[in-house]
Queue: 3 jobs
Job 1
Amino acid sequence: MKKRIAIFGSTGSIGTQALDVIESNPDKFEVEILTAHHNDELLIQQALKFKPNAVVIVDEKKYAGVKNALASTDVKVFAGESSLEDVAAFDTYDLMLAAIVGFAGLRPTIKAIENGKPVALANKETLVVAGDVVMGMAVEKRVPVIPVDSEHSAIFQCLVGESRNPIERIILTASGGPFLGRKPNYLVNVKREHALQHPNWSMGTKITIDSATLMNKGLEMIEAKWLFNLEPEQVQVVVHPQSIIHSMVQFQDGSIKAQMGLPDMKLPIQYAMAFPQRIPNSFPRFDFNKASQLTFEAPDTKTFRNLALATDALYKGGNLPCIMNAANELAVWAFLRNRIGFLDMTNVIEKTMERVSFIEKPTLEEYLDSDGEARNYAASLMQL
Ligand code: NAD
Ligand code: MG
């Protein structure tokens, strides 16, 4: 039986790499649903090639074009944001790959879990915004949430066979991004194009900026807390610029397990889709004889203050991670449009976290409200 995959965010970096994995394993996977925000051309191309049951184009202005282009096929075409939840409620798929970027991925993922569908989770913002609600629902529905993020996939892989052995701590590795070793006097002048050049990974624009500011690692600390049910003290970050060790788990006897390999998102994507199986592939292999060295250093949270803000959000909990995420999404959006500077992003996030009222145990509705409130406040700070 082939696993029927629903790819939410199929036109993005994770989505297109997932389709490469599916194309290489036609006996194991088939495509059931594809969704895109604006990119109608790529969505059409993907639909013609993979013949899914349904596609969603969120941008309603593009509906007629997509419908026309797929008129000679059996592909069902939907448009608009609410269609994402409608198709997530379908019974005809076996696994959702949650690869939409940002807060927009939250609702369809919740719908999949409510629908009892396993989720391969790339969209870390979902757990940053409402991790307790999402994981609580997954436990209640007995739905597996399998990480795709490389660090969390590494931890997940290290934990196989260790269900009786508690975690002492996890060590998330960070590449340090393109500005590793730089100080604020340099960062103040950094422009969009420069920040978009990540040394080790090719990714969507939002996560690439998050990697340059180290917010990505902050989001990942919170993601890890919820995925692996950890206390904040159990989450440590170390900078490892070569991105060969993808993360580590330390057990209660002090033993540390690491998962390693060349930086290539196709591996964690494939692992999550095929779990619990490992399937052969021809991705390039890491060669210890050719590796010059693997190095480690502590993150510079005085320069990369986003990581300090995220650590604060991790410890305080409640709706603070949600507020931080909303401000960050908007700040990154503004930076990508040259509306604010690199260091301004941190100031916007910090001020928004101070301003929006703290709720210790929010409901889903309260998380959604906090997101809106934080976005409004951050927008006013940036005069957007
Ligand atoms: P991307 O920008 O390349 O792609 C995003 C996808 O989401 C696209 O298909 C786009 O059409 C869709 N989308 C964007 N906004 C939307 C909206 N408002 N409503 C509906 N759909 C929308 O992003 P990406 O790099 O593929 O990242 C996707 C997610 O995976 C992010 O949460 C990111 O943090 C996470 N992730 C990515 C990588 C990576 O290597 N790219 C690694 C780890 C985790
Ligand atoms: Mg990651």
Note: The first strand starts at residue 3 and ends at 8.
Job 2
Amino acid sequence: MMPLIEARDLVRIYHVRRGLFGHPSPVRAVDGISLTVTPGETLGIVGESGSGKSTLGRMLLGIDDADEGEVRFEGRAMPVRGTSDWRKLRAKMQLVYQDPLAALDRRLTIATQLAEPLEIHRLIPNEHRSARVSELMNAVGLRPDQATRFPHELSGGQRQRAVIARAIASRPKLLVCDEPVSALDVSIQAQIVNMLRDLQQQYSIAMVFISHDLKVVRNVADRVAVMYLGRVVEEASSDVIFRSPMHPYTRALVSSVPRPGSPLQARTILQGEPPNPADRPSGCAFHPRCPLAQDLCRATAPVLRPIDDGRTVACHVTTGNDAQKAA
Ligand code: SF4
């Protein structure tokens, strides 16, 4: 199936000053990522803070420019940001942020904010607008009387429902959800995730679901890409990742997720500090925290390569490919 969206060798470099008088030095927040998402599919992107997953999400939408590489949507290169072609395309690709209060305008009622994208993208005749707003509110489980409320009059979960209603107003083909439930109570998180899944099926929307929380990703993703310091270190179907993680970093992340119906497994505690993109270790960036690290790992960065079971992994040791990589 043709990918809905395809990223090829994406690189994003920030220039970060070290100390008050230091010269800015380049930091590769996203460092050579290629991925695809097919129509209706959900790709989970997981990793700790600083792994570059939010930057990658913004690059997929064309909100953040690529320094190298490109993004293609339905086979066509992403138009230049700010052009009318880009604005038209943006109606098909929407972003759901972590903080719904920041995403909504505090001065406008929920109904007004849901009507905005319909008006901006001229999606519906004026006389049908309020019916469409009611339909959107119903789709995300908001009550009709909440149409006239302001964001601060709703709960966190209701606000995120409003943000999602606005995101689907333009009938997008792709939703990029960046930590969409991490600011919500655990009891509300499951409701929002289930709602996203229902909406996705109902409207055939593809999703890129970015989260540091593997429990949430497990419930929503068809495939999972695990990021560490700007690179994908393992990618596979959700089933394969959670059943038999291969990369030592993925294993540590997955070991923290309880498996329904299975006894508690031994948890692998990640050693050392979370990654600092401005201070990338040599060779495999994970080697200072990796229990399997060898001399080769400190010297040479492993390449992401396919394994027989359909996954791709970047590791010298767990793929049994250390001799080849040393060559
Ligand atoms: Fe660990 Fe080496 Fe594999 Fe990196 S390449 S994850 S350091 S075993």
Note: The chain has twelve helices and twelve strands.
Job 3
Amino acid sequence: MSIVTVATSPIEGQKPGTSGLRKKTRGFMAPHFVENFVQAILDAIGGAAGKTFVLGGDGRYFSPQVAQVILRMCAAQGAKKVIVGQNALLSTPAASHLIRLNKTDGGFIMSASHNPGGIDEDFGLKFNIANGGPAPESVTDAIYAATKTISEYRILEAHDVDLGAIGTTTLGGMAVEVVDPVSDYANLMETLFDFPKLRALFAGGFRMRFDAMCAITGPYATEILERRLGAPEGTVVNGTPLPDFGGMHPDPNPTWAHELMDVMFGPDAPDFGAASDGDGDRNMVVGKKTYVSPSDSLAVLAANAHLAPGYAGGISGVARSMPTSAAADLVADAKGIGKYETPTGWKFFGNLLDAGRVTLCGEESFGTGSSHVREKDGLWAVLLWLNILAERQTTVAEILKSHWQDFGRNYYSRHDYDALPVDKANAIVDGLRARLADLPGTEVEGMQIASADDFAYTDPVDGSVSKLQGLRIVFADGSRFVIRLSGTGTEGATLRLYLERYVAGPGGLGLDVQDALAPVIAAAESLACIKATSGRDGPDVIT
Ligand code: G16
């Protein structure tokens, strides 16, 4: 085995997005592409010498090859040890947990999350820091800078390491510890939730359907729900992770998880349904004929978390991304705890969690999590919902109804326009941005505009500033819309339009969501001209 230094040159398009680098798989397969990016990561974090890392991913196409490259590069550059999920599999929250549990220096996660997998679909790679969370912008900026000046990388010439067998081997002078991907994570869940009570719930005939969408949460959900909690076999469907997710688009929203929606809204629906995404950090929760919007889910979890043993002492605060509805803020106000509004991207929650300012975080993009790890966590959210249902002995529909009665309802929806030509998407955003200063005080579609700005965030812990995080137009009645471009798409530009309208109740809490939002939707079109500029009839995805 010898260490070789390979001459290379910068490759275009290695700028990390909202959550690491995501690209078409064939782009990642281009010569030197993975090696350049891994070298840039290692350079940006001050080298690998003496360090321990975690490695795993959602098992999508090309992951086995990338895992071997990362191992050989870490070995060549003096890393002490890499802890790898068996067969290079780890859900993103499980990877975050292993980084923390083993006090490592960080980890490599191979995933493009909710994006489809396969040679003609998407691949992704991101680095998480020692707190278990996605690298903050200071680190991703350094990674990007390193990709632009790279001239060589160092790699070990060696045979592939057998990642199928649990145990420790060596690669050069580096230890490779292959671990069961599920057990430590499942043990952590047992410390947070009332497993005996959940076992009793299932034993009492409670019926659930968990759709793993042929992605990574299958083994985790099967172990926890069916084995440890005794839910009947078959509770977990699409439970085997496949390199192409069986052709599914593993994005747990009503559009892509339509099989689950059909069951939950059909005859003989189970009591509770849930789906997770490619890498297991997102979740969608559905009751019998009841869809729970992610923003409402965060608010309900914040209001009820104390019912689970891991949060019995209460929560210190709650954070949400700016486009997420303000429903969780109302809960924070009522509880007298901290509330924070961050840019889109889980990395922005890291400092707040580390500082103990918040216990729960969530986003409209089907992500919820807590201080137990530094990633959002799909299965964790599902278990917290189950714990709340077991304690309150009621239905999802009743929980939502009573929540709205207590706090009012933030009607909320996101409209996505996928794969737009980049120039058209930019024209929409730039056109609206240019008008922001003139909008306050004017009227559109009968609605008075109270404020209009481009969201900027100052991290209250380290003072770092992130600008240009989304255009927001707020109306006099508190309704608002937000427009921003996705940082996770791999084809053209995805434009996201976020819509919100608050109704205090007691009347008007049971409206159809799109009907309730109709005036805001009309105002957004009138101001931003999305359909007119894009030539599209309407959004591709409505959440
Ligand atoms: C990632 C980020 C989330 C973000 C989501 C959507 O999630 O971690 O914080 O909300 O992307 O981002 P965008 O609107 O820029 O596409 P995931 O599940 O894809 O890792």
Note: The longest helix spans residues 513-528.
